[in-house]
Specification:
By secondary structure, the protein is an alpha/beta fold. 37% of the residues lie in helices and 14% in strands. The protein has two domains: 241 residues, Aspartate Aminotransferase, domain 2 (3-Layer(aba) Sandwich); 138 residues, Aspartate Aminotransferase, domain 1 (Alpha-Beta Complex), CATH 3.90.1150.10. It has a seven-stranded mixed sheet with strand order 1-7-6-5-4-2-3, sandwiched between helices. A five-stranded mixed sheet has the order 8-9-12-11-10. The chain binds pyridoxal-5'-phosphate.
Length: 395
């Protein structure tokens, strides 16, 4: 059945469910772990909130609709969603995973799933031949995260899903950076979409949460079983906050993307900036592919100030962004991947991943773009002044 409403309308329609009983315009907080069964022989839809809760279910239904899937699942964190999804695999199974996958996903693969006999191969998923070569007879999943963190490399979701199907594998896509506003992997052949809803979907740096959406009933049934069995569900109040976040997801993201584009263009003209990584920029290696599979370059970009001292000087001389891990909020967030998200990598691994000691990642918020650019000009001025000083020997 064709969707009668456009995406912007569904963001509201799917999250505003007028309460039958009272007419309340918002989904109530059903803070109840258990549910009275009115009939001794026939139990109602809800019995215990790990297995199902009406507030959480409203969120799960909304994300399923927005991603174009058959069923949604809300988890206590992005990592809870991702870990639960990987437990669709069994001992002896193998997964193909991007080299520059999110650090927490790297950790669960290399320190937990490997102990359970679930193996993996890390590849550059932007290279389709490398993906093909990594597939083994026991490969069950090809995992995609696009654009990647922090250098925003773009993987072809349609092509990888096709390779996966040809090899009887599933495709999982971590869609945290784009959200269904800009990228809907299930429509491009993926089987399961994962989110750290902590980021754009919450949008206000106030919740840690994860979401998953299954593309077909078979995966949905197995994932529901695991969600209930493992129990890492999202709480009722956090589910409600995500329903609220979803309502403004598109307007927040469109504003942030517009500013990100302007800031990326501004930064790419600055002499102090060695490189800008943003898939909305002409000249970014994945920009054409990004335009084909996603509606924008997104709200996250990275830029290279050449060395740590310059990065530190920049951070110390800007006032608007929060300097923190995480991304996807109304406030701009500046982070330093070498000592934050990618601190666990060795220097060699960081170099191979393109994470130089001068790299900063910016998640653009909804402040005025002109104000942000003026703030960054002040940061770059300070970097410029630094350059006037003699370079220490040994550098
Ligand atoms: C933050 C993040 C995660 C992990 O989510 P949590 O909510 O922190 O557990 C997974 N993938 C990506 C791309 C992320 O940015």
């Amino acid at each position: 059945m064709a969707e009668p409403y456009n995406f912007s309308t569904r963001l509201i329609k799917d999250t505003v469910k007028v309460d039958e009983e009272t007419g309340a315009a918002n989904v109530p907080l059903y803070l109840s772990s258990t549910f009275h069964q009115r009939n001794f022989d026939q139990y109602g839809k809800y019995d215990y909130s790990r297995s199902g809760n009406p507030t959480r279910e409203a969120l799960e239904d909304a994300i399923a609709s927005l991603e174009g899937g058959v069923r949604g699942f809300a988890f206590a964190s992005g990592m809870a969603a991702i870990s639960t999804a990987f437990l669709l695999l069994s001992s002896g199974d193998h997964a193909v995973v991007p080299k520059n996958v999110y650090g927490g996903t790297f950790r669960i693969l290399t320190q937990v799933l490997n102990r359970l006999g679930i193996s993996h191969t890390f590849v550059d998923t932007t290279d389709l031949n490398a993906v093909r070569r990594a597939i083994l007879p026991n490969t069950k999943v090809i995992y995609v995260e696009t654009p990647s963190n922090p250098t925003l490399r773009v993987t072809d979701i349609r092509a990888v899903s096709k390779i996966a199907r040809e090899n009887e594998c599933l495709t999982f896509v971590d869609n945290t950076f784009m959200t269904p506003v800009f990228q809907r992997p299930l429509e491009m052949g993926a089987d399961l979409v994962l989110h750290s809803a902590t980021k754009f979907i919450s949008g206000h740096s106030d919740v840690v949460a994860g979401l998953a959406v299954a593309g077909n009933e078979a995966i949905a049934d197995r994932l529901y079983f695991l969600q209930n069995a493992l129990g890492s569900i999202l709480g009722v109040q956090d589910s409600w906050l995500l329903l609220r976040g979803l309502k403004t997801l598109e307007v927040r993201m469109r504003k942030s993307v517009q500013s990100a584009q302007k800031i990326a263009e501004f930064l790419s003209k600055q002499k102090e900036v060695a490189a800008v990584y943003y898939p909305g920029l002409q000249g970014h290696p994945g920009s054409d592919l990004q335009a084909r599979q996603a509606g924008s370059g997104g709200a996250v970009l990275s830029f290279d100030l050449k060395d740590e001292e310059r990065a530190r000087t920049f951070v110390n001389n800007v006032t608007l962004p929060v300097f923190a891990v995480s991304l996807g909020a109304v406030e701009s967030i500046l982070s330093y991947p070498p000592k934050m998200s990618h601190a666990e990598l060795s220097e060699k691994e960081r170099r191979e991943a393109g994470i130089s000691s001068g790299l900063l990642r910016l998640s653009v918020g909804i402040e005025d773009a002109g104000d942000l650019i003026r703030d960054f000009e002040a940061g770059l001025d300070a970097v410029r002044r630094l350059k006037d000083q003699p370079v220490r020997s040994g550098e």
